[in-house]
Structure formats: C-alpha cells, structure tokens
Give the backbone structure.
Amino acid sequence: MHPLEMQRQPLPNLPCGHALAQRTLPRPMRQFDVPVFYRSSLIAQVKDARRTSDPRKRDLSPSVLDFGPVRFKIARHFGFCYGVENAIDIAYRALDKHPDKRIFLLSEMIHNPHVNDDLINRGVRFLRTTQGEQLIPFETLEADDIVIVPAFGTTLEVEEKLRAQGVDPVAWNTTCPFVEKVWKKSEQIGRKQYTIVLHGKRYHEETRATFSHARKEASVVVVRDLEEAQLLADVILGTRSHAFLLDRFADRLSEGFDPARDLERIGVVNQTTMLATETAAIAALLRAAMREKYGDATLDQHFADTSDTLCYATNENQTATQALIADGGDVALVVGGYNSSNTSHLVELCEKVMPTYFVSSAEDVVSPHLIQHFDYRAKAHRETSDWMPEKRPFEVVLTAGASCPDALLEAVLIKVLGFVPGAYPVEAVMASFATAASTA
C-alpha cells in the first residue's frame, strides 16, 4: 500500500462507495495520487470498461447499468478532472510531507464540501472565504508557513501580499494548468492591444484571478451571459452609448477602461467552468458585431482567435451530458458541491429536458418520497416530495461535477437502488456489464 494511503482514514460520515469546437481535446496523461477514500470500485469498473471498449473516446453514449426495475444511465465523462486531481495530490502531499508545519489554503481548494472538510479536519486552515472575505489576516503568516493556492488560482495582488510575508505563492500552487493557459493567452493578445472579454461570474475565484492576470497587459470587461454580451455588442455597434457601458458594467471593467479605445480590438476567453456552448455563442456574437463594424477584410485585426484556450474537462463533461440527455431518462440526479459552477451548468442542461435534482451526497436522497436538493438559481435548499417515478422500469440519468469524488456518485446510486424492491444484485449487474464491455 502507498504510504499516503496508509496515513489517510475515511472521511467521517462520508457515504460509500468548452465545446467551442466539436473536436477531441488532448487530455494530460499524468497520474495523480488521489486518496483511496475518494475512489469507488463500482465507478472505476464502469470507467475502465469504457476505456477498454472505446479507447479513443469517440462514443459519448452513456454507460447503462440495468438493475431490472431501475436502469441507471451514467455520463461517459464526469467526476474529478485533471486540475482537481492535481490540486488534491499537491494538498495531501503537503500534509504528508510537513506534519509539523502550519498549513493554510487561500480559500476552498475545490468546490466540494467533503474534500474541504477533510482538509480542515486534518488541520488545514482557510485564509479567506470563496467570496474573498478575510478569515485570517495575511499579516499573521510566517515565512515557514505553507500556503496552498487553490485550483482556481489567485490574483497577482494576493501573490504580492504573500511574498511580503516571506511566503512563496508558487511552492504549493495547485492552479489548474487550463486556467493558467487562459491567463497566458490573455497576456499574449493583451500585448497586441486586444481587450479581453471574459465570460464568467465576476466574483468567482477563477474569474477574479483571471481578471487580475489579464489586466496586467490588457483592458478587461466581464460578461456573465449571452444577454450581457449582446449589450456589449450594442455598444460596439453604437446602438448603446459608452456611458451606458460604464454604468451597467461598472464593477466589471478594468480601471481606466475607455470604450472608444478598448472596444476596437477584442478577444473572448472564459472562466473554464462556464457553459462552453454559451462561450461559443458569445464569441460568435461579438465576432459578428466586429465584422459588421469593420468588414471581413480587416476582421482579424479586430477579433482575436482564442479557441486554443479550451478546457478539455469542460468540453468532455458538457458534451457527454448532452449525449446523456439525448439518450433519455425519467429523472436526473447531478452530484456535486452546491457552489460548484461546473456542476450547476450540468444541472442547467439536464433540467431543460427532465426533472432534475442537484444533490451533494446520498444523504440528500432521503427516501423514495423525499429528496433534498439545491436550487442554484435561487441559491436555496429545496425539498421535493414523490420525486421517484412510479413507473417500472424507470431510468435515472446520473452524472457529477468535475470536483465530485466518484465515491459520492456511487453512494447516490446505491441509495436509490435500495429504494427499489426486486432490483438485481450489484455484483451480478457489474459482472455482466464488465463482460459486455470486454467483448465490445
């Protein structure tokens, strides 16, 4: 057994168990050491079977586990992405390597309460909330302290504050490489005098970090959605005034933003957890506005190509969810942290087609007659009665966000299965599934 696994105990009360272009994106091959209690033997068997039968990942159809009176349709891609596994590996390595040092996280490492709670239970302390509210003053840090930068990254201003305390912000940096790729692209086109149009949630940790890095070289404006992008296009085309932009987007513009100067050349990047299809639509909308204003001949001088900043996990998870939905189902369960942006977008896709419940763990699935879930739009917890379909057999669409441990997805599946009399044994279903996959 790996020494890291020997030192780690299961979480208390933890249940068992952008598509800007429709092309396959290269996935990093590095393997990370993820704690054993985040894993699931059932889900690992499903993923391994799919890798065997479809090594090039061309088949986005869901994996189907048929238990007789209930069938689970599991997305082709879901769960921990490269950036999350990288962050978890680094954080637990810091704990194992430096048991006698004070260890801090700038804020939540990833948006999953089970992971963050486990780190807190092991002595890690958070310096800030996800909204940026200070919990522990930076002035109390000492040069020997370890400060872990979360997967979302952080701002240049925070990095400087850490250095002022003698703390190296790079030594234990878990920033996702795909987030850093967006920063590099922003800086690259910024040096060519392009303004950065950032599709994201202005006060999300990743958007705050990207905003900070981008404005080092460029002017920046943040748009939340397609509706706001249309307002920006109106300003570009002159149907809305510069004063309107400065007022409506006051907290989403870099300092000294001049619409007359800064909207002549633009490029679109995103918070990597946003809906990739919406980012694509925003880019197309603004490109069309620039074409209308400047013409085809000089379009490339006014609109930068940023499609090479795609996050493979966002692309894979969202396209797999769309294929999952297309395959049909009676009810959808999406598992993940309630403040997870990428998970909320999977919910958004599913709820357009079928009853959908956003749950954080199996504990939310109370009974066949009651489910507790999260309304991400209202940011409120809800309860729904008689959520489980009465028809037999019925189909459950199942997926999870990029920060959700596989163990939590398995626990939800097992919990639902326990509510269905006459369901086939797990061992029998998994054996037949593995056999079918191996002969595919």
